[in-house]
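Please review the protein record below. Let me know how this chain folds according to its C-alpha cells.
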Amino acid sequence: MAPDRRPAPRWETAAVGQGREDAGRRRGTPASPDDPADGPSLDDATVLRSTRVGRLVRAHPWAGSTALGASVLLVGAVTAVAAGETVFGAVSLGLLSPEGRVADLAVPAWLAGAAAGALVLAARDARPLAVTAVLTVLAVASLGSAGVLGVLGLCLAWSLRAVASRRTTRTAVAVAVGVLVVVAVAAARWQVIGLAEVVGWGTAGPLASAGGPPVQQLEVPDPSAGRRALTVLLLAALLALGVASGEVVKDRRRHARALVERYAALARERDAGAALARQAERARIAREVHDVVAHSVSVMVALSDGALSASSRAPERSREAMAAVSRTGREALADMRSVLGTLHAEDDGDLLESSTRPTSTDLRATVERFRAAGLAVRAEGLATPLPVDTAARLAVVRVVGEALTNALRHAPGSSTAVRVHRDATALRVAVVSTGGTPTASDAGSGRGVVGMRERAALVGGRLDVGPLEDGGWAVLLELPAAPD
C-alpha cells in the first residue's frame, strides 16, 4: 500500500513569515501567544503573576513595595501603642523609672524602627543581602539604645524571604543563623521590653497603678533568661518562616522557568515543523508548475513549429497540429488551475484532495501527445494497469512526461522507447532515448530530474537516471506493487 502523503500540518506562529496575521484572520485562527505584536511575551514573571493582583504588580512594580511598607508601618503603629502601654505598666509597677532611658526612648525607637524597616525593605529584591545586613544593624542599634526590637524582627523575616528566593538554600540558612546569633546576643544584653513584657507589664500596669505607690524604681530591670529565650524563639520562628516562604517562591519561579523553557522548545519545534512544511509545499508546487510548463509548453512549441512548416504544403496537417496545440494548452491551464487551487485550500483535507487530483493520468494519451509533437516514440505495455493509488499513478505519468519532454527538448530527432511492465512485486517503467542531436544551448536546470526523484520517493519508489554506454539516456522507475 502506498504511504500516506498527507501534508505536514501548517502551524501559524509569529515566525511562520509575513502574511501570517492576514491568513489567520481569514481562517479565524487566533494569533500565536509568542508574537510580540499580539501582547507580552511569555516569561516566568508572566506565569508567576497570572492572577489579577499579580498583573497589577507586574504593571506597577512599586505597588508591592508600597503595600509591604504600608503594612510594616501599620503593624509598627499598632504595636507601638502596645509598647507604650507596656512602658506605662512597667513604670506603674515601679520596674522602670519614668525619667529613665527606656521609658523615654522605647516608643520613639519602636516607631523609628518601623519607618526605617519599611524604607529599607523597598530594596529587598534588588539587594537582599545588603538589606538584611542593614536591618540587622538597625535591630542591634534599637536594642542598644532603647532596649526594644520592635517590628525589626518581622522586617528581618521579610528580607530573609528575599534572600532565600534569590540565593541558594545554604546561603539563606547561613544568613538566617548569623542574623539570629547577632540579634540574640544583643537581646540578651540590652533588651528590656519584649513579648513577655508586653503581655505581663502591659496588662498589669493599669491594675498596679490603682494599688498604691511603686515598690521599686529601677532604671533597667534584671534580665530574665526565660523572657529573653522567648524573644529568641519568636525571632527564630520568624526567620525560619521567612526562609521557608522564600524557598516556596524560588520553587515557583523554578517551575515557571521550566514551563517557559518547555513553551519555547515547543514553539521552536512548531516553527521548525512549519518551516519544513513550507519548504516541502514550495518544492511540491515548483514540481507541479515545472511539469505543467515544461511538458505542455515543450509539446506546444514542437507542434507550433510543425504547423508553421506544414502550413503551405499540408494545410490539413497544420490544422491538426494547431488543434493539438489548443488541446495541450487547455490541459495545461487545467493543470495550472489544479496547482494554484492548492494555495487556496482552507484545510488539510482540501489541500490533500487538490494536491493529488490530476487532470489526466492516461499514460497512452501522454505518449500520443508527444508523438503528435514529432517525437518518435515506441511504446510497450501501455495497457498495463497502473496503481490504484492516485499519487502513484500520477507519479508514473509525470515521470514519463518529464522523460519524453527532456528527449524532445534536448535531443531532437531521437528515438525513444517507453516500456511498462508489472509483476507481483513491482511496477517498472523504462524510458530510453537513443540517437538524436543534443542541443548545447539549453543544458537544463536539473529541476526535472530532482522532481522525478522526489515523486518516486513520495510513493515509496526508486528512480535511476543516467546516460547509456552508446550515448543514449535512460530513465528507470520502479514502484512497489500494491493490491488493486
About this structure: The longest helix spans residues 225-310. Strands lie at 376-380, 415-422, 426-434, 462-467, 473-480.
